[in-house]
Target: NADH dehydrogenase [ubiquinone] 1 alpha subcomplex subunit 9, mitochondrial
Amino acid sequence: MAPVALTGHLASKIIPKNGYMSVVYIKSAQYSSDGKPNLAAYKRGTGGRSSFNGIVATVFGCTGFVGRYVCNKLGKTGTQMILPYRGDFYDVARLKVCGDLGQVLFTPYHLQDDESIARAVRYSNVVINLVGRDYETKNFKFHDVHVDGARRLARISREMGVDRFIHLSYLNADENPTPLVMKKPSMFKISKYLGECAVREEFPTATIIRASDIYGSEDRFLRSFASVWRIHSQIMSLYKNGEATIKQPVYVSDIAQAILNAARDPDTRCQTYQGVGPKRYLLRDLVIWFYQLMRKDRDWGFRLIDMKYDPIMPLKVMLINMISPAYPFGNLTWESLEREATTDVLVKGMPTLEDLGVTLTNMEDQVPWELKPYRAYQYYIDKIGEFPRPPPPKVQPAI
Model:
């Protein structure tokens, strides 16, 4: 009997012996430095949290608002996650329970350090970019994060042989936005637009999700209106009294589900999706409804005015940014007010989250639960039906 010859990437060395025997040394293919293996061949389990579905995903921005939801949904479906973090490890350690033992791994990184980014994506076949800023700091401007950072992540992911790159952007990103509240164009909108272009240049098959205002637990949409920093006395000011702005907010869990579905569907390559909720509302109607849910209109005599007739708002924004420039109280900055005043405009023919198989959540079903911690007189346990539930805001027709 002649010696058996093995070929392929599994056979490392064959040492013939006397007679009919051969000694074959098999090298591990899972994390081989000779190339990326077919991770789908390693699938095991029934698809739950204790399974492995063949996807190894690196989630940049995992400690942020959207990142926590994305990690939970990835871990629930058996995805192995590599979670890069900066700063204190204990900020990201809570995500360890998103997956089973050995399925959630951590690595330090810096957005301007190519080597640390390459180490984070080396063994992944999916990279998800959720890194973003709502306000600028002395270390990171909008352009540094949304453009240079996104370009660097996309470029290194392509160079390391990553199969899929998913990028979270902004619905109203624009190269030449018209100023509404501010005196100059919003750098947030411009940088988000340039970031999409940079990702497309470096990773042409990337999937981009343009999200509207995202609400959920610990968000910066509902809680900015509920913050004591936003209202003064009995007055709250909005751009043109909230009557010129139409919003289509989306629930954070729907965005996370869309990212998960995009990662599992290869047909989403090169696509751009619009992340909006199922209904459109006037901003004025939304804000009044928020305060009715918190029963603050009944207790305080709440009313809305036009922002241009409010002399206190500019002083408040200036004071907040002087006291706490690294973290504005109540997310009260001119950039946030500019985004708040912007109407959500959808591009005709561009797919939405429903095309990703997401069942959208209605605000009427979720927002009362989100605002429950902000209700006035929480210590009072009311009887069922004692206080009538306020009617939901009027739905605006689709454009």
DSSP finds eleven helices and 16 strands in the chain.
